[in-house]
Amino acid sequence: MFGPLDHVALLLVAAFLAGALNAVAGGGSFLTLPALVFTGVPAVTANATGTVALLPGYAASTWGFREDMAAPPGLSMKLSVALSLLGGAAGAGLLLVTSDATFKKVVPWLLLGATALFAFGPQIRAWAAGQQHGSPSTVKAALGMLAVAFYGGYFNGGLGILCLALFSLLGQTNLNAMNGMKNLVSTLLTAIAVGVYAAGGIVLWPQALLMMVAATAGGYGGARVARKIPAPILRWGIVVTGLVMSVLFFTKV
């Protein structure tokens, strides 16, 4: 069901570390997706299964920011929720019809792009904050939210950075409100995507549940250790991990 014991160990360690990383900085998908692929899981199925494993962490983070949450300018909370669900479902639907051969060719570029987003996240947010002039139109805000949710439904890496950059562009300035909304959007689009993945039969539930338990433990226990690591070292450690995984996938294609 799980494969050799070394495969089980790899999935547990990757999910635990991914949960810890997502709790303090993000970048967990840099570990879960490659771990599943390296244990023989097809790339499309690995992407779906790894997303399922990280869902509880998103939900827990959303609950933690429940008092600070606020919709970004140009969008109501109801519209934000609807667009998150719609975009997430659409992105997940595209993943269902993407062949494994095609996705294997796309994955290295997605990982590399997500790594770049993570590496330059602060600069991207600063640039986005400086681009906002006046109140955004509802149409532009809705299209931005839909695009971010679509990306998240197809591939989760770098989603948090995209969310924060979008909210900055829309003129949101309260960091707690931005983080709360980021977590809510991530939870909603991931939840609907998981439903689509499950309906399409591309989730390996034994691996997903195993990794879910490890990721939840990592989100609580591992984060206690990760928080003691200086932020720049943690950030660049994650960037290096993303680059290494990207190179490995490029060499496998």
UniProtKB/TrEMBL annotation:
This is Probable membrane transporter protein. Belongs to the 4-toluene sulfonate uptake permease (TSUP) (TC 2.A.102) family. The keyword Nuclease does not apply. The chain crosses the membrane at residues 79-97, 109-128, 148-171, 183-202, 233-251. It is a multi-pass membrane protein. It is found in: Cell membrane. Keywords: Cell membrane, Membrane, Transmembrane, Transmembrane helix, Transport. Its main location: membrane. It comes from the Bacteria. It comes from Comamonas nitrativorans.
